[in-house]
Design goal:
The chain is α+β, with helices and mostly antiparallel strands. The protein is about 20% helix and about 10% strand. It has helices at about 1-20, 55, 65-75, 85-90, 125, 160-165, 180-185, 260, 265-270, 280-285; strands at about 95, 145, 150-155, 190, 235, 285, 290, 305, 320, 330-335, 335-345, 345-350.
């Protein structure tokens, strides 16, 4: 009995040790030289004793297999290490600019986005290279960030606080849709549950796998390749999304056109009007009346709505004011409301449902 007890203790300790070491830089058994696998006595100027500049240094292990082979030959990386190829992720058309970059923001901007020069991001802006990764969900991020109130924190308590280091008013994005501090303000009438838990009645269109409490920025802005490393490194789709999202005002509905939305919202529920009596007509159009369908983006914001329930915020490329100058949505009940606007040349003053 005693030997069985000791065996269980030994197995438990082994599991905890492996969980704490396998993915960590500090104390990582996959780095034969320990700190010396990264740091050298005399490194590049203005670098923390690194042999290369930071934007290329991490690729020595987190790059191609050839780069890892060179590190193994140098005795700095264990044969056990099989890190993801992040160089490939940052070569995608929509990515965080970890390399030197001075052009305009990547991809077609969301309306309202500043055309200011894109900022450069460092791996260490989001990742602490000395962190010992613990098993289970993170309760503290070992990198600095900002709260929604603009307060600096040395260790972020939520992923979005890390994002606010760049995507907030204090980073010069005031008035921009990339300004998450404004988008997820406590005064917003509705939002995806990133900074605060979802409240109210669950949307009928939500898939059973979709979060009903809290979600992360990286649930949406992440790798489009499900077999690749997760996180907002790079994507083949606009806005660094996990899937395709056609925001054209005359988008033709298909599982691929709104692939991103359908990853959480059930397509058949939307097309059968379970949450809104005219969803199908808005999305598919009505050929008999020569009415064309439109994108989810024509009516809904992907982040939040400052004034309306149900994330309703109209895209000015598709929707304009009515003859009285009104552009508004009024919710009159669960699944009912009225709109005052002109959409695709047709005036609603109001349209009730």
């Amino acid at each position: 009995m005693r030997s069985r007890k000791y065996l269980l203790i030994a197995v438990t300790v082994l599991i905890l040790l492996c969980a704490g070491l396998v993915f960590a830089h500090v104390g990582n058994i996959k780095l034969p030289e320990g700190c010396g696998s990264c740091h050298v006595g005399h490194g590049m100027a203005n670098q923390p004793m690194l042999a290369q500049a930071e934007e290329t240094f991490c690729y020595q292990c987190h790059g191609s297999e050839a780069e890892r082979a060179a590190m193994r030959s140098a005795g700095k990386l264990s044969e056990l290490a099989q890190a993801s190829d992040m160089r490939r992720e940052f070569a995608k058309p929509y990515r965080h600019p970890v390399q030197e970059y001075s052009g305009p923001p990547q991809g077609k901007p969301t309306f309202g986005v500043s055309t200011a020069t894109a900022r450069r991001a460092e791996c260490a802006d989001c990742h602490n290279p000395h962190e010992r990764i613990q098993p289970g969900p993170k309760t503290v991020y070992q990198v600095s960030g900002f709260t929604l109130a603009g307060q600096y924190v040395e260790k972020s308590l939520a992923e979005y606080q890390v994002c606010l280091k760049c995507h907030a008013e204090m980073a010069g994005l005031d008035g921009s849709d990339r300004s998450l501090g404004r988008s997820f303000s406590v005064s917003a009438v509705s939002q995806h549950p990133v900074t605060r838990a979802a409240s109210g009645k669950r949307s009928p269109s939500l898939a059973s796998s979709a979060s009903t409490i809290l979600m992360k920025c990286s649930d949406c802005h992440t790798n489009d390749d499900l077999s690749g490393p997760r996180g907002p490194h790079g994507s083949n789709y606009r806005f660094m999304l996990s899937g395709n999202y056609d925001i054209d005002q005359y988008a033709q509905e298909s599982p691929f056109a709104f692939q991103f939305c359908y990853s959480c919202h059930d397509r058949m529920s939307l097309l059968s009007n379970q949450s809104f009596p005219l969803h199908r007509e808005h999305i598919l159009g009505d050929p008999a009346r020569n009415v064309r369908g439109t994108s989810c983006y024509s009516c809904h914001s992907s982040h939040s709505s400052a004034d309306n329930q149900n994330l309703i915020r109209f895209n000015p490329e598709a929707v304009s004011r009515d003859h009285s100058g009104r552009l508004m949505y009024i919710q009159t009940g669960q699944g009912s409301g009225e709109c005052y606007l002109t959409c695709h040349g047709h005036e609603h003053a109001p349209a009730r449902y």
